[in-house]
Amino acid sequence: MTTTTAPTTPGTTLREGAFGPAVSLICRECGTTRELGPHYACHECFGPLEIGYEFGSVTREQIEAGPANIWRYKALLPVPDDIESSPNLEPGFTRLLEARNLATELGITKLWVKDDSTNPTNSFKDRVVACALSAAREFGSKVFACPSTGNLANAVAAAGARAGIRTVVFIPSNLETPKQVNSAVFTENLVAVDGNYDDVNKLASEIAGEEDGWAFVNVNVRPFYAEGSKTLGYEIAEQLGWRLPDQIVIPVASGSQLTKVHKAFQELIALGLVEDKPYKVFGAQAEGCNPVATAFAEGHDAIRPVKPDTIAKSLAIGNPADGIYVLDIARQTGGAVEQVSDDEIRDAIVLLARTEGIFTETAGGTTLAVLKKLVATGQLDPERETVFINTGHGLKTLDAVSGSVGPAATIAPTYDAFVAANLA
Amino acid sequence: MTTTTAPTTPGTTLREGAFGPAVSLICRECGTTRELGPHYACHECFGPLEIGYEFGSVTREQIEAGPANIWRYKALLPVPDDIESSPNLEPGFTRLLEARNLATELGITKLWVKDDSTNPTNSFKDRVVACALSAAREFGSKVFACPSTGNLANAVAAAGARAGIRTVVFIPSNLETPKQVNSAVFTENLVAVDGNYDDVNKLASEIAGEEDGWAFVNVNVRPFYAEGSKTLGYEIAEQLGWRLPDQIVIPVASGSQLTKVHKAFQELIALGLVEDKPYKVFGAQAEGCNPVATAFAEGHDAIRPVKPDTIAKSLAIGNPADGIYVLDIARQTGGAVEQVSDDEIRDAIVLLARTEGIFTETAGGTTLAVLKKLVATGQLDPERETVFINTGHGLKTLDAVSGSVGPAATIAPTYDAFVAANLA
């Protein structure tokens, strides 16, 4: 890691209020605080930086009067007060649906699904990218970029197009054509890299370290980017009628989303926007990429990296940066981190579709399959109110289920054939 | 057409308030009025029936206090007052985005895109299906069904799953596997029919005519179903700050959506929710399925059916039921119905993605391409405020652009290769 270059184009000065209520950057490892700016690693210990805030008065009424997207929470995000006037994809405020059929199926009393598959590019990444875009704009970045194999590439390419900022997206050159099209449609600068995702990621870090003015959303503007996931937590609380659930199940890739949802809940409590209460946080991983679940099961404090091999590609981060924080939160709150097989993931995708009419990608399948397992193993209390997060859309991972669902019958185009098929 | 059978299961009685402010069914051909019920064809002339209302007092504040979905307009729809308590997909209240980059590109002063690609199953069909589902529930229908090749199948299968009603979806057996999966994931009863879409449609009408208790959304509950499209008009007006645009461009398949958006605008004026003002309505078709555009261009009052051959498959209705009403509205308001080629459609899909970060399907490409043509030919005033509707998601018609977009470069995973590629 390096802090010598930055997303800031030389000569740029930050305007007053560029980051709203954010006031500092705090190292999550050593706690050192520094001034807010285009930094992402601690100058003392190279640990990851996180945003520190001084919130003013924030009321439920003020939030409810805001737009039906994440900017209703702008007073809690590192974005300027005029954020809504800058072209962006306006993600968020997605549905929180009570999942009655699914609850019955699983033997749970009260279950909700937070469905982020209906975001602009059909995953929760639109939330984090919107916050990264705001930071890039305030830093005067000349390029908006990311390495990715999927959801992040879509979100960055689309958000950059709408913002009118030069956007460059790096993908492994062996990525399937449909996934390439999903991003290439938005940007002239899709760059195929001959190598695997790790190679692409390494190249991105190298470019971020060499070129001024390049904002890599998940590298050098990561502290700002990551805060976008807090909005999932705010929305769940608001949509439940300004209260917290008893239990929440969240997928774990880097682990960032889970830590940010917890952070959001803590902020809402501190601000008096919801009542303080205990809640349990559960993490979901695939067996084919289970470093955090393994550490949890074995009672370790450190994460041993793995080489991913799972259909849940959007969760396939073998060395998750926030894994240790996920362990902390799961243990502190009385939750857990569990893992499921690819077959369990496939089954869960179909289960969610057949019970609630939501087509989730493999990440959501993982989360639901873990929820099911947590109930079966007694780790999750079926009598207590539970929320799980669906982070993306099944249209992006069609292959996962195309072998397991299909027509029930093929008939001739006649009423007699219909009757004979016994469908009435 | 027949009115002898109905979606009502024998023995079912309608409950008080089952259809909210709706009070009657009115024939659009002869004007004959009949009592509200499970009917879809006039008993005098077999013309199509439409819902008649007696609206109570409806205020902006009342609507704004409602949920962020179509049920905020329940006082204007044929649904019961407790509609929100019945499990449904909660579609609507999708983004209305100001399209500044696109406006600049087209030389238009003020342009908005109403983006229905972020609906639960990624098309406007979720709106109409939600209203059909409510009707089916009130009629005590035992089966929720449709013939479809795409968006409608997805929407019906998903909505039926969540509602816990038996759902049967009929598709042509030669439909591509990905499209089959999009519906099969939601229902055990996807039925492949050996024939083309017309054969499937004919079979559906036959079943609707023979079996009691089958609610075919676009056949025997069509009057209720079609009203769902009004919500597009309500949302556009509300999201503009309770006013109407000067010009609106809407795709034309059956023509129903266009007529309902116009109906919605007229209702809002009549109720005093927006100021009365002139606005022009434009219809968009593909050259490969252009019966309404042709009739408009030739000044005819009747529609001559065509055999569709276009990449805009969701608009490929060769004999559009509401075509004559579309002609009326376009002429009355000073609008037009235009047509564009498949190449223009493909270009428009990429144009929208690159300027506004929205990936539309071929129907949306058609609408934008027509908008572009209307400006170029002077039929649409570039100085006046314009809205166009994006009805669906590009993930469903990937093939349309997969030949025309892709990586700009393929490089080795090194910084030197990056520099040599001249991307900085």
Automatic annotation (TrEMBL), chains A, B:
The keyword Transcription does not apply. Pfam families: PALP (PF00291). CDD domains: Thr-synth_1 (cd01563). Belongs to the threonine synthase family. Its EC number is 4.2.3.1. It comes from the Bacteria. Keywords: Lyase, Pyridoxal phosphate. The gene is thrC_2. Its cofactor is pyridoxal 5'-phosphate. Coiled coil: none annotated. This is Threonine synthase. Residues 91-392 form the Tryptophan synthase beta chain-like PALP domain. Gene3D superfamilies: 3.40.50.1100.
